[in-house]
Amino acid sequence: MATPRRYGACCAGRSLTPSPSPDESDPLALPVPLTIGVLADTHVVAQGVRRLDPAIPDLFARLGVGLILHAGDVNTASVLRLLEEVAPVLAVQGNGDDADLRASLPLTVRFRVGRFSFLLLHGHGDRTARTAARRHAGLVDGVVYGHSHIARSEIVDGTLLLNPGSAADRRWQPHFGVGLIRVTADRVTPDLILFDDPRHLGNIS
Predict the structure, then answer these.
(1) Which of 3.40.50.150, 3.30.1330.60, 3.60.21.10, 3.40.50.20 would CATH assign to domain 33-203?
(2) What tens digit of pLDDT does each residue of 46-78 get?
(3) SS3 labels along the chain
């Protein structure tokens, strides 16, 4: 697999058909099949008590994830380094990230997997994170976003919009969440994995 730039209870999935005219100008193209791990809003600050539970990278490793997306509000780079022990990571900056991450992470990342085009963003700076994601509906095959801490998987104008929720800071939401996107030559299949306790992730295969 081409190596991306490295930045230093289950819900039923839906499937999509590929866009007919891939944009060859996309800077990163990855081969299929590929399983992608998705997370956002980990909010792990350097001097805080919150940590990314090891059960999450363990889950991604066990499921054979070949790429990990972090949709912003990492807060400190240690989270990305932990994820990179499992697979290459693509990440974007969020409004809560520290100065070093804001300096090194882009606001958006565009990439392709096979015939499918994807956009990764955080979702801040608009009326809602979902509004920010919906602006790209019909323009790419998939948008991964965060910011709201609200796990959601939907298809709008033929585009998958996936927010995994937060893997470590659920705030007012009933569950923590991470996502999976399985991409084959002719299909994109997303899943949301919602959990109350990271130890429950050991039951997912």
Answers:
(1) 3.60.21.10
(2) 766 678 999 999 999 999 999 999 999 999 899
(3) CCCCCCCCCECCCCCECCCCCCCCCCCCEECCCEEEEEECCCCCCCCCCCCCCCHHHHHHHHCCCCEEEECCCCCCCHHHHHHHCCCCEEECCCCCCCHHHHHHCCCEEEEEECCEEEEEECCCCCCCHHHHHHCCECCECEEECCCCCCCEEEEECCEEEEECCCCCCCCCCCCEEEEEEEECCCCEEEEEEEECCHHHHHHCC
- What length is written for the chain? 205
Q: In what order do the strands lie in the sheet containing 89-91?
A: 89-91, 67-70, 34-39, 176-183, 188-195
Structural domain boundaries of the chain? Answer: 33-203
pLDDT tens digits, residue range 148-199? 999 999 999 999 999 999 999 888 888 999 999 999 999 999 999 999 999 9
Query: Which residues, 6 or more positions from 184, have their beta carbon under 8 angstroms from its beta carbon?
Result: 32, 33, 114
Residues sharing a CB contact under 8 Å with residue 87, sequence separation 6 or more, in sequence order: 37, 60, 61, 65, 66, 67, 68
CA distances from 182 to 14, 48, 65, 66, 177 (A): 10, 34, 9, 10, 17
